[in-house]
Target: TonB-dependent receptor
Amino acid sequence: MSLFGWYLLGLTLHAPASDSTAPDASVIDDDDHDDDHDDVGDDEPPGRAEGPTRRARRPPRGEAPVAAQTIIVSTGTRTAHDASTAPVATTLVTRQDIVDSGAETLAEALEHQDSSISLTEGVGGTELSLRGFDPEQVLVLIDGQRATGRIDGTIDLSRFTVENVERVEIVHGAGSVVYGSDAVGGVINIITRDPDPGVQSDARVVYASRNTVDASGRVAGGMRRWQLAGFGGYHRTDGWDATPFDEATTGDRVDQWNVGAGAKLQLPSEVRMSLDGNVQQRLSQGVDRADDGSLVDRANSTYTGDLTYAATWVGDSSQLRGTAHYNVFKDLFVQDQREGEAFDQRQPTWDHIGQFSVQLDQLAGRHLVTSGADVQLEWLVSERVVAESGANRSDRQRVALFMQDEWTPTTSPRVTVLPALRVDYDSRFGLYPTGRLALLVAPIESLTLRAAYGRGYRAPSFREMHLAFVNAGVGYRVTGNPSLAPEQAWTGDLGLTWTPSKNYRVELGLFDNQLRDLITVDVVANANELGLDTFSYVNVGSAFVRGVEASGFVGFLRHFEAEAGYTFLHARNKLTRQPLPGRAAHQATLALRFHQRSWGTRAVVRGRVTGRRAFSVSPDLPVSFAVPFASIDVRVSQSFLRYFGAFVGVENLLDAGDATTNPIAPRSFYGGLSFRY
Model:
């Protein structure tokens, strides 16, 4: 058997014992899931029998072992790899990172994890910028299936809860060759937790400032061939206001609940099946002040439902996987002007997407060949959308064929060459090919070099093609443009990772992104007989986003860890040479962790520094900048009686932020209890 067999998704092939980089096959169960080993002790003699003495020496439940565990990633290539030797660099937010941070949502989990990530509060909620790319240019996936429900181009990361999240995989650079449209600047893949045989359960309740309540729980278990899981959570907060001298609010009041379930089945015929589903309801409310001084009460009610079925057949040197996924997102936007009607609105929107994929992985000597097809059916129903037929509905179909060849000519030194090609057909604009070439070279075990160059694109959204919106109170209207071309990007990455020991790691990276046919809003007609200027979406100009990244990790004094990251970003419009708005030239993250396993005590201090960034950019006016700011979070947790834990913390200790350029929730304190079995 070739030693490259372990790369196959879910294959239980073992590499030769001499290959120190090959993971245990037991962790390569699935391309999108990872086993939870949190309750395994690392300080027990090998081969010691199970019994009262051994159980007493185990660390508290939920405490990850000190010994490094193999983590399997799949987002960058759609095939499973040890994260340390994956040919496409992947940033990981592990389950332990999520627990340490005290995060309840994906936005909170990502807040301090990567210096290239920037989170801001926008019209559509908490939006993410990755290496200077806009939120609509970053694809968000859940177990490899694209999430829907963009509001004003943004997927609100605060609506994704984390009680059922095993890890988050972040891939920088163009990912369109793997996932198609929208993956211009990167991919965020949320990997959910798999149930294991036996019984597992955990629960968590938190109370925080502003009457914030978080409660979540999960129960899972089963036998060797079948497992079940159920989870759910509730979240509410009163919101906040950076300008208490008026009635307008800055942060919304939120009420949210979600429930979900999953099942896995292993058949004797080497076929695995899984079925997962969840539903969520979220209500956010706030008060806005219009340009004329009017106060407007605003409410967004969103409803989300997901259902995914997957089946995998495993052979001696191949694997075939098929997936069917359906997602529905309803957004009901209601706006009520106080003492007036000019700004009153009621806009229901239904966004549906059906996804079907089939993927074949085959071993051929030192080649792992991946091929397959993706089908996406999407339709949107909204009063704001007027298609060519005049109906308030727009739909599109996408079909794609892809192929990738992972060739590893040698393992000492390790060299992997990864060419990939994909051709997408979109019913709205036709064929679009993308490609990528990636290279990994590890001349010695502690040093890894990576390079990648690829092409990405973002197809125009329904809103950009068919929006029909009139705001008579302000004097404008916005119309869609069905003739828009896709945004395009050519991205190049160079990276170096040096890990001289388990207590030290250094990473350096360079990236250069060239963008063309960017979509923006511009005036296309001056005021008509009704006094309304007409705006529309147009393809304009080009831009570049380039920069440098550096990060380091050190473990010291046995119980301490320190980690830091820095990103320098240079983003400019090629025509005007002006900076692209919303991109800070300098960003840094810092973290200091303490973990005394025998006490069950953890403490973490995390911080982020964001430099000044262009806030308002106009060809006729000087550029205005948002002021720099720094935020610090502190959390201390204590395990007791093996199954229980208590924690306290403070977020935004420095009370950074303001109402306009940096809308950050003010300083808040929290405390809570946890249970894990």
About this structure: The two ends are 39 Å apart (CA to CA).
